[in-house]
Amino acid sequence: MSDSGVGSGHQEWPRTRIVLIRHGESNVTVSRVIGGPRTCSGLSDLGREQAGRLADRLAATGEISADVLYSSGYPRAIETAEIIAPALGTDVTFDAGFGEHDPGPECDGMSFVEFVEKYGAPNWEHDPYGVTFPGGESIAEFDVRVGSTLSRAVQCHPGMTVVIVCHGGVVDRIFRSLMRQPPTGAFELHTGNTSLTEFVHLAPGRWRLVRYNDTAHLAGLPAATTRG
Fold first, then answer.
1. Edge-to-edge strand order for the sheet containing 196-203?
2. How far apart are CA 189 and CA 213, in angstroms?
3. What is the mean pLDDT of residues 94-105?
4. Neighbouring C-beta atoms of residue 9, cutoff 10 Å
5. Deepest of 83, 109, 173, 219, by most Cβ within 10 A of its Cβ?
6. Which segments within the chain are labelled E, that is strand?
7. Does domain 14-216 have CATH number 3.40.50.740?
């Protein structure tokens, strides 16, 4: 099939555009804490500045004409979405299905130092049916949740531009799924704060990666908050 967007029966395929935005730098990242849905405390000062830079870029360029703006239920994603929403001219729709890999109640809020002392260094590339965080989601469960949430969003907005403010792990899950890559291993993604990652739905089961990890708006800002 060519890239003309013509599918079976010569019907035009609705080219849904998915734009993934990772949230700005979070307080839990600065504090080196596992920040799940129970303990996330939002953006750092730098994270808010990053989100502001992205909002300014989107307002100036008009490069994204959003039909809908989703945010996960984490405060760090909600803050980011609320900062960029005026630039996109849309309200924010919340969907917990776009939340980060849930560490579970036992590990949520635990410092990374405490986690390593108790459980050892996390292995992100192990059996997808294993559990990185005791009591939390397996990678397979995370995959199913994110995949079904994205599928629902695409089905609800055919041919539209769907912007999703989410998390690095969610970008990784969606990237691997849409590009038909293995769920673990083979390569590693490092998605920057407030970066833009974009896909276009060409035909059933066929997606094009337009851009990944676009952070041009962060030029001149420090890479991260300096930790004391």
1. 92-94, 68-71, 161-166, 17-22, 196-203, 206-214
2. 9
3. 97
4. 5
5. 173
6. 17-22, 68-71, 92-94, 161-166, 196-203, 206-214
7. no
- The tally of CA atoms less than 13 A away on the side-chain side of residue 205 is 4
Question: CA-to-CA distance for 80 and 152, rounded, in angstroms?
Answer: 22
| Mean pLDDT, range 64-71, rounded to an integer | 98
The average pLDDT across 54-68 equals: 98
Least confident of 64-78, 85-99, 107-121, 161-175: 107-121
Burial label for 119, CB within 10 Å (0-12, 13-18, 19+), is middle
Q: Is the pLDDT of residue 15 over 90?
A: yes
CA–CA gap between residue 96 and residue 146 (Å, rounded): 10
Token look-up 């996109």 returns 88
Residues listed for the chain: 228
Q: How many CB atoms lie within 10 A of CB 54?
A: 26
How many CB atoms within 10 Å of residue 134? 12
